[in-house]
Amino acid sequence: MNQPLAGYAPAPVTARMENHGDHMLKVALQTGNDLLARVGSMIAYEGFIQYEPNPPAVRQIARDWATGEGAPLMKCSGDGLLYLADYGANVVVLNLDGEGISVNATNLLAFDAGLSWGVERVKGLAKFAGQGLWNTRISGQGWVALTSRGEPIVVDCGGGEDETYVDPDALVAWSPNLKVKGKRSFRAQSLIGRGSGEAYQMAFSGQGIVVVQPSEDSTDRLRVRG
Length: 226
What we know:
Blueprint lengths: L1 H4 L11 E3 L5 E5 L5 E4 L3 E12 L2 H7 L10 E12 L5 E14 L4 E5 L3 E7 L3 H4 L3 E16 L4 E4 L7 E3 L4 E4 L4 E6 L15 E6 L3 E4 L10 E2 L2
Antiparallel strand pairs: 1-2, 2-5, 3-5, 3-7, 4-5, 6-9, 6-12, 7-9, 8-9, 9-16, 10-15, 11-14, 12-15, 13-14
Pfam families: AIM24
């Protein structure tokens, strides 16, 4: 029985965070190097690992989440291997080396607790959305895991004059140094979403990347709030 299942066995640990297949994240936890992960994302673990939902650091940041832009988070600590997933979504692992990433909170799976993070207003969009759009910005030295509804594409904006346009419902993350603005087309009375006739897009320009998922699920879009 073990022989036909051998191809699914865990691979040797080579990094703090890595994929196990396309839809699962493996994290090597060590004492003193805690992790913040989406509540309910743990599917298995080995060793001695403790979980603390909504820890004080998260509660402090969450005061800015008036309408739930942030995903519920738990602190994972201890020694062992931790496996995370989010309903079979693809997992994308990033190793930040002093950079930052701006993430749609519904696509945030896990990140090192030592990274700097918080909720920020997306500049350049308030006049289109009326009240503004908000996202989660993460920066520093450490690991971040994102989810994508299907295999994503990473677009390099390149720094040229051309802009990259993205449906907000398909947007996963982008480099925070990119310039962002809104663009309306077709029906101006409709702003966001699959049913709007693609009436609203986000335009990115500058040097950096944009991560886009092959899904226009409106539950994954950036949220509007005042």
